[in-house]
């Protein structure tokens, strides 16, 4: 059934695991995620970015997700990823999403508070969950680019949550969006001390981790072997994410790894079967690759298998 993330996060917090929030753009991605969830018996969050909404059209993407929800007995939340303003949040709330992110992280602090608070008022009227963000992730996010991480200040996080009333908070502890998170040969780390401090100051409060793809080397290699040029891509090691999931982090966002898996498999298919031109023949293995990647996340990173 379609659910609010409230119950999911409560269980995840006390159970020491996280729920996966997977970005969806088309039917095959949604189907791949759903079959992974079914096989693992895991709760799911399907999330739609502004880019996904534009690509598919809000009506199409909602109908696809509704079809997925109607077919399953798993708890599924429908979430807006990186809502950039009040208007987009209001639109998807009216369309039936059960959760929205208002991302005011690039705004001055007081403006972030103001817009987040406004979205909370509108969302809570309809029983919709609100994720806010404080701190800035390095890398590209919907055309906004930050060179460096601005780590979330724990005391400010408490004030932000109190003043806005947001239900969960995305924080910056060293992850970033996309495939190029850390330099090759460097030792990727996350600021666990900061996470621990935030967890202590906000007991029981669900924290969200964006930019949490691991960029598995075998998929980079596969894509590159078959003509790709994905350079020195390095993600967040799986064991660091697993540790975060055992702490206050209840939602982990994954997009890049799904993109990588689909692209690598499609490239391989084209290289091995150049005579093929039926889209089903390469979208089917791509859908299977999404499923396997999501299952891998559930087992190695989230710890949510068997929790639904
Ligand atoms: O945080 C960004 C997500 O990976 C969504 O990416 O804006 O290209 O759809 P997108
Ligand atoms: P990745 O780019 O690491 O997959 O992060 C996705 C994300 O945070 C979506 O909001
Ligand atoms: Zn994100």
UniProtKB/TrEMBL annotation:
Cofactor notes: Binds 2 Zn(2+) ions per subunit. One is catalytic and the other provides a structural contribution.
Domain of life: Bacteria
Active site: 81
Residue numbers binding Zn(2+) 1: 82, 177, 210
Protein EC: 4.1.2.13
InterPro entries: Aldolase_TIM, Class_II_FBP_aldolase, FBA_II, Fruc_bis_ald_class-2
Record keyword Zinc present: yes
Pathway note: Carbohydrate degradation; glycolysis; D-glyceraldehyde 3-phosphate and glycerone phosphate from D-glucose: step 4/4
Binding-site residues, Zn(2+) 2: 103, 133
One GO BP: glycolytic process
Annotated catalysed reactions: beta-D-fructose 1,6-bisphosphate = D-glyceraldehyde 3-phosphate + dihydroxyacetone phosphate
Protein role: Catalyzes the aldol condensation of dihydroxyacetone phosphate (DHAP or glycerone-phosphate) with glyceraldehyde 3-phosphate (G3P) to form fructose 1,6-bisphosphate (FBP) in gluconeogenesis and the reverse reaction in glycolysis.
Family recorded in the similarity comment: Belongs to the class II fructose-bisphosphate aldolase family.
Entry protein name: fructose-bisphosphate aldolase
Species whose genome carries this gene: Desulfocurvibacter africanus subsp. africanus str. Walvis Bay
């Amino acid at each position: 059934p379609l659910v609010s993330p409230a119950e999911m996060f409560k269980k995840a917090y006390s159970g020491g695991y996280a729920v996966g929030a997977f970005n969806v753009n088309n039917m095959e991605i949604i189907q791949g995620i759903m079959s992974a969830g079914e096989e693992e018996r895991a709760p799911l969050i399907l999330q739609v970015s502004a880019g996904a909404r534009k690509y598919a059209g809000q009506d199409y993407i909602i109908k696809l997700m509704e079809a997925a929800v109607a077919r399953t007995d798993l708890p599924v939340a429908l979430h807006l990823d990186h809502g950039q303003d009040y208007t987009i949040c209001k639109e998807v709330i009216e369309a039936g999403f059960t959760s929205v992110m208002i991302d005011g992280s690039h705004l001055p602090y007081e403006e972030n508070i103001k817009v987040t608070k406004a979205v909370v008022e509108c969302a809570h009227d309809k029983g919709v969950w609100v994720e806010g963000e404080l701190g800035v992730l390095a890398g590209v996010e919907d055309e906004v680019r930050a060179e460096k991480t601005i780590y979330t200040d724990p005391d400010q996080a408490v004030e932000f949550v109190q003043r806005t009333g947001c239900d969960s908070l995305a924080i910056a502890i060293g992850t970033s969006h996309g495939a190029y998170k850390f330099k090759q040969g460097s030792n990727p780390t996350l600021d666990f001390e900061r996470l621990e401090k935030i967890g202590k100051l906000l007991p029981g409060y669900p924290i969200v981790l964006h930019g949490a793809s691991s960029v598995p080397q075998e998929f980079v290699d596969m894509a590159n072997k078959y003509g790709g040029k994905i350079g020195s891509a390095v993600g967040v090691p799986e064991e660091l994410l697993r540790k975060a999931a055992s702490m206050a982090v209840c939602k982990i966002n994954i997009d890049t790894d799904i993109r990588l898996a689909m692209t690598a498999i499609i490239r391989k298919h084209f290289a091995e079967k150049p005579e093929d031109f039926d889209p089903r023949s390469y979208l089917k293995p791509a859908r299977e690759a999404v499923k396997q990647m999501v299952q891998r996340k559930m087992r190695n990173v989230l710890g949510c298998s068997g929790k639904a």
